[in-house]
Amino acid sequence: MIPRSRLLAKLDTAIAAAGNPIEARCLRAERAGLLARQGQLEAARAAIDELTAQLAWAPNPTLRAWLVLADGLHGYYSALGRGAQEQVELAYRLACEGPSMPRLHAVAAAWLANMAFANDDMPRMATLVREALDTAAPQHHAARARAALVAGYAYHFAAAGERAQPWYEASRRHAIAEGDETQLSALMHNQAWMRASQARLALLFGPAVAGGRVEPGRAATPSADEAVAQALMGAESIGHYDAGIGTASLGSLVPMLRAQVLTAQGRWPEALALFESHLEAARADGLERLLPCLLADRAWCAWQVGHAHEAQALAGAAEQALQQDCDTDDRAMAQARLAQLCRALGDADAAQRHRAEAEHGHRTHCEQQARIGALLDEALVGVDPATV
């Protein structure tokens, strides 16, 4: 039996003890946002719609702001992407411009920092992390947990793992204080994805693969092999944890993470089975920006198990997907994988072209990493994650 969420129980108690109907409705809107984060999207939508109808009869700026945030979180956890950002932006503006709502202001700023990172707006991400931390009171655990998580994975993305760890610890500390198991799941997800991404980059762009000399079936170096194994352990831990707490949101994330890590380990049939079972769900969950990587890895797996025609078709689909928005590091990895596949298929010209584009993308990514680290250092000067 799935244990009851501590935060959900805490909100239910607060709703029952609320001093007036508006306070109770604001707490119910907050509860709806939690349900959305847990993947209970129908229950969240029903609560939001009911509260929206009540708001029409009894307008209140504070309730409106909390409802808008809940609606934004519902959209975000329905399908990862930018569509939900407008609602979170509105909640942020309402909190800043309306009656004093410091907790909502801090929470909305932290979520906008999260979205700014996803949208590659790193200056705004760094500014909003600091704003969330400066606005949140010590007991505003939700805002501090999310802001610290963004700082942690942004440093991690910038290849500053040692600086990331104290921020991850701060996020964990506040999530535990809040009783927010879903936030702990998000922490595990982000750490695992970052570890897997960096391990895959090391395999594709380490010294053994420089200059396009990538050979099918090349063995990983011991350090890269260990990093990939740790990434797989992290992915499997997430799956067990989410099952234990009953999180059902964005259920394709873990299978796709596992598929990419298994590809890096050379476990082609296992990876291919996960791609075949979950790739369409991943697209529905909003992972379109990862599609070039996912398709390229799937093509490589298909080639490795002897499905040459399927591999060629998937490679073509991966090239087509590269015409869409794609993060620089993911684009570089997709191009590197396509270079491997084209070489294996005997198309040396295409392999050379993809490898050159991959190397260019990787250099750009390394430059971005340096900028992100500098932006965070500047924004967070004087802030000690141990006391956040």
Offer a few descriptive terms.
388 residues, 17 helices, globular
Layout of secondary structure:
Elements: H1 6-16, H2 21-37, H3 41-57, H4 61-78, H5 85-97, H6 102-118, H7 122-135, H8 141-157, H9 161-178, H10 181-205, H11 222-245, H12 253-265, H13 268-284, H14 291-304, H15 308-321, H16 328-344, H17 348-379
Helix pairs in contact: 1-2, 2-3, 2-4, 3-4, 4-5, 5-6, 6-7, 6-8, 7-8, 7-17, 8-9, 8-10, 8-17, 9-10, 10-11, 10-12, 10-16, 11-12, 12-13, 12-14, 13-14, 14-15, 14-16, 15-16, 16-17
| Quaternary state of the chains | single chain
How far apart are the first and last residues' alpha carbons, in Å? Answer: 35 Å
- What percent of the residues sit in helical stretches (DSSP H or I)? over 70%
Number of distinct beta strands: 0
Report the order of strands and helices: HHHHHHHHHHHHHHHHH
**Portion in beta strands:** under 5%
Low-confidence stretches: 207-222
From the spread of the alpha carbons, the general shape counts as globular
Rg computed from alpha carbons, rounded to a whole number of angstroms: 22 Å
